[in-house]
Design goal:
Radius of gyration: 19 Å
Mean pLDDT: 94
Number of helices: 4
Oligomer: single chain
């Protein structure tokens, strides 16, 4: 029996602002020395207060104009709560209910939203050593770098189109001059939400995270389609989960059960002001188009 593949993409790209999202530490993707572009704010020290990077907000609004999205008249930041070593505060400042941009299209593909958040630290794993010598190191130079996230509607039905869309988005970011989007440096990362079904209803969604090349996007989607189709043919159930892409083995691997939005306990960030976009002159669509 024929199966239908449905894909939605989530693409993260680091903005090339001079400083980080909520502090004045330098935003420098070319820095090779670990833990030099850091401060008490991006390290999450108790008692520190973030401030909003105005240029990062403006960059995302310019992107919204370029894709024909609806710019928010009101926006706010939220706390996304989860514990992981690369999140020093124990939560990430992101956007949930009130993103900067809703809707729009790129390459004819409908967009759900574009919002702004902060990046995490970089984890370096020494997993090739002997079992008793395995460890992970953290470089916080990337922690707090402004990160734009674009989410598409689940309207992509083949791996090649997904990869072409990602290339087009990278081109748009560089054309606008708001991001370098160098995937080899980790400045742009992709996640694919993939489902397979026997009819027009969507199947169980499986997320494949941290795809760092266009080739990986295509290969991961194709592998997941075959894996899920084979699972359904055996009469088994697809598990809603997060999977990673193993570039060496050319296969996805299970990482953890997929979280729901309520698992993150979102609530408005109390340390940041609300944004009334229409009251800021250089955030007006006309001003953004002239930029």
């Amino acid at each position: 029996m024929d199966y239908k593949l449905t894909v939605g993409l989530e693409i993260h790209a680091e903005l090339n602002t001079r400083t980080k999202m909520f502090c004045d530490s330098r935003n420098d993707a070319d820095e090779v020395r670990p833990n030099v572009n850091i401060c008490p704010v991006c390290l999450g020290y108790p008692g520190t207060l973030p401030t909003i990077n105005r240029e990062a907000v403006r960059s995302v609004l310019r992107l919204g104009v370029a894709v024909g999205g609806k710019l928010a008249e009101y926006s706010e930041f939220d706390r996304k709560n989860y514990f992981y070593p690369d999140i020093p505060k124990g939560y990430q400042i992101s956007q949930y209910k009130h993103p900067l941009v809703k809707g729009g299209k790129l390459m004819g593909i409908a967009l759900t939203r574009i919002h702004l958040e902060e990046d995490t630290a970089k984890s370096l794993h020494n997993d090739q050593a002997q079992t008793h010598d395995q460890y992970s190191l953290l470089d916080f130079n990337r922690a707090g770098v402004p990160l734009v996230e674009l989410v598409t509607e689940p309207v992509i039905h083949d791996a090649e189109t997904a990869a072409k869309f990602a290339k087009e988005f990278q081109l748009l970011l560089t054309y606008l001059g708001i991001a370098h989007a160098n995937m080899e440096k980790g400045e742009m990362r992709l996640e694919a939400n993939i489902s397979v079904s026997k009819d027009d209803k969507m199947g169980t969604k499986v997320e494949v995270k941290n795809l760092n090349s266009f080739r990986s996007v295509e290969r991961a989607i194709r592998f997941e389609f075959e894996r899920q189709r084979t699972t359904l043919d055996r009469g088994e159930t697809i598990v809603r989960e997060t999977r990673g892409w193993n570039e060496t083995k050319n296969e996805t691997v299970s990482q953890r059960k997929k979280e729901e939005s309520h698992d993150y306990r979102y609530f408005p960030e109390p340390d940041l002001p609300k944004l009334f976009i229409k009251e800021i002159p250089d955030f007006a669509p006309e001003a953004l188009r002239r930029a």
